[in-house]
Write a structure and sequence with these properties.
The complex is a heterodimer of chains A (687) and B (93).
Chain A: E1 2-8, H1 14-22, E2 39-42, E3 51-55, H2 67-77, E4 86-92, H3 96-109, E5 113-118, H4 120-125, E6 128-130, H5 132-139, E7 143-145, H6 154-162, H7 179-191, H8 197-204, H9 218-230, H10 235-254, E8 255-257, H11 265-273, H12 278-297, H13 299-319, H14 324-341, H15 344-360, H16 362-376, H17 384-389, H18 394-400, H19 407-416, H20 425-436, E9 442-445, E10 448-451, H21 452-477, E11 488-489, H22 499-531, H23 542-545, H24 550-562, H25 569-577, H26 584-594, H27 608-614, H28 627-639, H29 644-654, H30 658-686
Parallel strand pairs in A: 1-3, 1-4, 4-5, 5-7
Antiparallel strand pairs in A: 2-3, 6-8, 9-10
Helix pairs in contact in A: 3-10, 5-10, 7-9, 11-12, 12-15, 13-14, 14-22, 14-26, 15-22, 18-29, 19-21, 20-21, 20-27, 20-28, 21-28, 22-26, 24-25, 25-26, 26-27, 28-30, 29-30
Chain B: H1 2-12, E1 20-21, E2 30-36, H2 41-46, E3 54-60, E4 67-71, E5 74-78, H3 80-83, E6 86-91
Antiparallel strand pairs in B: 1-6, 2-3, 2-6, 3-4, 4-5
Chain lengths: 687, 93
C-alpha cells in the first residue's frame, strides 16, 4: 500500500484538501490546530486499497514543540513506523515564506514530494502572485495550485497522486548553513550514517533533544550544541536564520508583487473586534448572547418536548394495568430518558453557536483578548477555547487542550475543566432547583426583584467558573509553579461560517448525547429499579425491607459520609449512579423512588423532583430532605468530578493514572466541604 | 581555529545598532530584527523572526496583553514577555 502524508502549517488548508481528496467529511478548524489526531482515508476515484492519505497535525517546522507536533514529526521521520512513501506539502500561498520553512526541511528528508499551493486567491488580494514554475525549479519538486473548496485544480492533483507524479531533490535546495553549523552537523552524521542531517539540525535547535530520538546518542547532539554555543553561535536561532536567508532568495525569485497590499477585510473587522475597549464590549455581548440563547430561546422547544413526554407518561399510566412493568416504563424509560432528552435543544444550541464562533474565526480573537487575564491565573489565552467548549462537555474540552504548546499550562487547563458547568449538570440543577427552591422566593436588590430560582442557576454557573479560575491560580502558584510559557497565536482570516457543516456536526454530537441517554441511562435505570426492589421478601411492602435490597445495602454503606450533608442512602445510590454520567442522577432517583410509589399514583414518574420533595423520613414521618439537602446537593454537583468519561479522557491525555485520580479525589473532597458549608449556612439562615 | 571562526562571524555580521526591544515599538512602527533571546527563541526564529527580518507592530492590546506583529506577509500575536526578548533596530518608513 502507498502511504501519502499530508503535511503543512496549521491553518494552511490541509484538512479541506484532505476532505476533497478522500471525500470524507472531516472537521476543518478555523482555529490553529483543530486537527489533533492522525486521520487517514483512501484517495477517491482510485482503487481504494492502493493509496492511503494521512492527514497529519499542522506543524511549523520539523522541530516539535507540542504533543500534536510530536505525533506528526515522528511519523515523518519514521520513528515508530516506516516513513510515508510520499509527501504532499500544503503551502499557504498568502503566507509563503513562513510555509517554505517547513517545505525546505521536508525537501531535505529525501522522500518524494509534491507541493500544493492553497489560498492563492487570498494571496492575490494581498497583491501577491506566485510563479509555480519558478518555485518548482527553486525547490526541485513539482508545485501544483488548487482551490480545494471550489474544486479548481483538484482533478489535476488527484491524477498526479494516482500516477505518483512526485519529485525528489537529490541535492537539497537548502544547504546554506554557516561553516560552523555545517561541520557540526556532518560530525554528528559521521557517527550515525543512517540518520538524516535534517533530523540532526531539527534536534540541535532544542535545549534538550526529543525523548523519542533513537538511533543516535543524544549526548552527541548536546555536545554539538555546546560546541556551537562556545563559538558564540546560538543554534536555536542561527540555524533558522540561515534557512530564512535561503527562503528569502527562493521567495524573491518566485513571487510577483502585482499591487500594493490593501487593508484586508479581516483587519478592518479587527479594528473593532480587537479594540482596546470596543473589543471587550463585543466579546461580552457575544458571550451574553450565547448564554441568553441557551437559557431562554432554547427553552421554548424544550417546553414542547417536556409536554410531549408528560403526555406520553400520562398515556402509559392510563392505558396500562398497574404493576412492575408500568412502573419500569414510566420511571425508567420515559422518566429516565425523557428527563435527558429535554435538554437536547440547549445542547444543540450551544454546540451550534460554538461551531459558528469557531468557524468564523472569532474564537482565536477571544483567546487574544483574554490572554492577559488567563495568564494572571496561570492559564493561557488558548485555554479559553477548551474551557468554552467544556460548557458543552468536558471530554472534547480536555481533548482540545492539545493545541496549548506549554505542557504545564495545558495540564492546569485540563485539571480545572471539570469545574466548568457542563450540559450534563443542567438536568440535575433544574430538577433540584425545582424541587427545593420555592418558586415564590425572590431576592430584592434595590428596586429590582429577582427570581430566586433563576438566580440560583446563575449562581451555580458563576461558582463553577470562579472555582476553575481559583484552582488554576492556586495550582500555578504552588504545585505547578513554573516559568511563564509561550504565547504565539495566529489570528485566522474571518470567513463566513459554513452553516450546513456546523449544523451537521452539532447534530452528530447531539445524536451521541441521545444515544447515551437511550442506552446508558436506560440500562442504569432498569438496573437500579431491579436492585432497589430485590431480593423480594414475601408478605412485606418494599418500604419495610428497602434497606435490605441490593441497592439499599450499597446505599447504607456510603450513608455515613453523606449524613452530615443531610443526604440519605437513596441519594447515595443516585450519586454512585452519576459516575456513569452526571445527568443519570435524575433518572436514578426516579428509579429508586418509583419502587415505593407503586401504590399511590399521585405523581407521574417523570416528576422526580416532586417525588424527592415528598420523601418522608420512615422513623419521624417528617420530610426526609430539607432545603439544606437540596443546597448541599447543588454545591456537590457544582464541584465534584465523578464523571467516568472525563476520568478516562484525562487518563488518556496525561498518559497515566496520577492526574485523573488526583483530580477526582481532590474535587470530591472540595465538593463535600462546599456542600457542608452551604448546608450549614442555608440551615442557619432558614432557622 | 577559534580565532578564524570568530573573525568570520565579525565579517558576516555588521555591527548592529539595536535600539530597543519589540515591545517598545509604538503601534504601526517598523523594526528590523537584530537578535532573539529567551526560552522561546527557537520557535520565534522558525516563525520568521530571523535576523534582518522586517517586523511591524500592528496592534497593542489593553492591559499589557498580547502584541500583534506583522512580518513576512502574515500576522502573529506574542506576549509582552516574548516580544521583550526580540531586539530590533527601528526602521524609517
Amino acid at each position: 500500500m502507498t502511504r501519502i502524508a499530508l503535511v503543512g502549517n496549521p491553518n494552511a488548508g490541509k484538512t479541506t484538501l484532505f476532505n476533497a481528496l478522500t471525500g470524507l467529511r472531516h472537521k476543518v478548524g478555523n482555529y490553529p490546530g483543530v486537527t489533533v489526531d492522525v486521520k487517514s482515508g483512501a484517495l477517491r476515484g482510485g482503487d481504494s486499497s492502493e493509496i492511503d492519505i494521512i492527514d497529519l497535525p499542522g506543524v511549523y517546522s520539523l522541530t516539535p514543540h507540542s504533543p500534536d507536533e510530536d505525533v506528526a514529526i515522528k511519523l515523518l521521520f519514521g520513528i515508530d513506523d516506516v516513513p510515508p512513501n510520499f509527501i504532499v506539502n500544503v503551502v499557504d500561498a498568502s503566507n509563503l515564506e513562513r510555509n517554505l520553512f517547513l517545505t525546505t526541511q521536508l525537501v531535505e528528508l529525501g522522500i518524494p514530494m509534491l507541493v500544493v499551493l492553497t489560498m492563492t486567491d487570498a494571496a492575490a488580494r494581498r497583491g501577491l502572485r506566485i510563479d509555480e514554475r519558478k518555485l518548482s525549479t527553486e525547490l526541485g519538486v513539482p508545485v501544483v495550485s488548487t482551490d480545494a473548496p471550489k474544486g479548481a485544480g483538484l482533478q489535476t492533483l488527484v491524477s498526479r497522486l494516482q500516477d505518483q507524479g512526485f519529485g525528489i531533490n537529490i541535492s537539497p535546495v537548502y544547504a546554506g548553513y554557516s561553516p560552523e553549523i555545517t561541520s557540526t552537523i556532518s560530525e554528528i552524521c559521521a557517527f550515525s550514517p543512517d540518520i538524516s542531517p535534517v533530523l540532526i539540525s531539527t534536534q540541535l535547535v532544542r535545549e534538550t533533544p526529543s525523548k523519542w530520538l533513537t538511533g543516535i546518542d543524544s549526548e552527541l547532539i548536546e555536545s554539538g550544541r555546546a560546541k556551537l554555543c562556545a563559538l558564540d553561535i546560538d543554534p536555536s536561532t542561527a540555524i533558522a536564520d540561515d534557512r530564512y536567508i535561503g527562503i528569502g532568495r527562493i521567495s524573491a525569485r518566485s513571487v510577483i508583487r502585482t499591487t500594493a497590499a490593501a487593508t484586508s477585510f479581516s483587519e478592518r473587522i479587527d479594528q473593532i473586534a480587537l479594540h482596546k475597549v470596543g473589543g471587550y464590549i463585543v466579546f461580552l455581548a457575544i458571550i451574553t448572547l450565547v448564554f441568553h440563547a441557551i437559557f431562554t430561546w432554547a427553552q421554548i422547544p424544550a417546553e414542547w418536548i417536556k409536554s410531549g413526554i408528560d403526555s406520553l407518561g400520562a398515556l402509559v399510566l392510563s392505558s396500562m394495568p398497574a404493576g412492575e412493568l408500568r412502573d419500569l416504563l414510566i420511571a425508567g424509560v420515559i422518566g429516565g430518558v425523557g428527563n435527558t432528552v429535554v435538554f437536547l435543544p440547549q445542547i444543540l444550541t450551544l454546540l451550534f453557536l460554538l461551531g459558528l464562533l469557531e468557524d468564523s474565526g472569532y474564537l482565536a480573537r477571544g483567546a487574544f483578548l483574554l490572554d492577559r487575564f488567563m495568564y494572571r491565573v496561570g492559564l493561557h489565552g488558548k485555554s479559553f477555547i477548551p474551557m468554552l467548549s467544556s460548557f458543552a462537555c468536558a471530554v472534547p474540552g480536555i481533548m482540545a487542550t492539545r493545541t496549548i504548546e506549554s505542557g504545564r499550562e495545558r495540564l492546569v487547563t485540563m485539571f480545572v475543566i471539570p469545574l466548568i458547568p457542563c450540559t450534563a449538570r443542567i438536568p440535575v440543577y433544574t430538577m433540584l432547583i425545582a424541587a427545593f427552591i420555592p418558586a415564590t422566593w425572590r431576592v430584592n436588590i434595590g428596586v429590582a426583584s429577582l427570581d430566586g430560582r433563576a438566580l440560583c442557576m446563575v449562581g451555580l454557573f458563576i461558582s463553577g467558573i470562579a472555582m476553575s479560575f481559583a484552582v488554576a491560580a492556586i495550582l500555578s502558584r504552588t504545585a505547578m509553579k513554573a516559568a511563564p510559557s509561550t504565547f504565539m497565536l495566529e489570528l485566522p482570516a474571518y470567513k463566513f461560517p459554513r452553516i450546513g457543516r456546523i449544523m451537521r456536526e452539532s447534530i452528530d454530537q447531539a445524536w451521541l448525547f441521545i444515544k447515551r441517554a437511550g442506552t446508558m441511562i436506560l440500562a442504569i435505570s432498569i438496573a437500579l429499579w431491579f436492585l432497589s426492589s430485590h431480593p423480594k421478601i414475601e408478605g412485606k411492602s418494599p418500604k419495610e425491607y428497602e434497606r435490605s435490597t441490593y441497592a439499599g445495602r450499597v446505599g447504607t454503606l456510603v450513608e455515613p459520609v453523606l449524613k452530615p450533608l443531610g443526604m440519605d442512602w437513596k441519594i447515595g445510590i443516585g450519586l454512585l449512579a452519576s459516575v456513569a454520567a452526571r445527568e443519570v442522577f435524575v433518572a436514578a432517583m426516579g428509579a429508586i423512588y418509583n419502587v415505593e410509589s407503586s401504590d399511590d399514583d399521585d405523581h407521574l414518574g417523570v416528576a422526580v423532583g416532586a417525588r424527592m420533595r415528598a420523601e418522608k423520613n420512615p422513623i419521624t414521618g417528617n420530610p426526609a430532605y430539607d432545603i439544606g439537602t437540596g443546597a448541599a446537593l447543588l454545591a456537590f454537583f457544582a464541584f465534584a468530578q465523578q464523571c467516568m468519561s472525563t476520568f478516562a479522557v484525562m487518563r488518556r491525555e496525561t498518559n497515566g493514572w496520577k492526574w485523573p485520580l488526583l483530580q477526582s479525589v481532590s474535587y470530591l473532597m472540595l465538593a463535600w466541604v462546599a456542600a457542608f458549608i452551604v448546608r450549614t449556612i442555608v440551615m442557619a439562615v432558614n432557622a | 581555529m577559534h580565532n578564524v571562526v570568530s573573525d568570520f562571524n565579525k565579517v558576516d555580521q555588521p555591527a548592529p545598532h539595536c535600539e530597543c526591544t519589540l515591545d517598545c515599538l509604538a503601534n504601526g512602527t517598523k523594526g528590523e530584527v537584530c537578535s532573539v533571546t529567551g526560552p522561546n527563541r527557537c520557535r520565534l526564529a522558525e516563525l520568521g523572526f530571523s535576523r534582518g527580518c522586517e517586523v511591524e507592530v500592528a496592534r497593542k492590546s489593553a492591559f499589557g496583553g498580547p502584541i500583534e506583529v506583522r512580518l513576512r506577509s502574515y500576522r502573529v500575536s506574542l506576549r509582552v514577555e516574548e516580544a521583550s526578548g526580540i531586539t530590533v533596530r527601528a526602521v524609517e518608513d
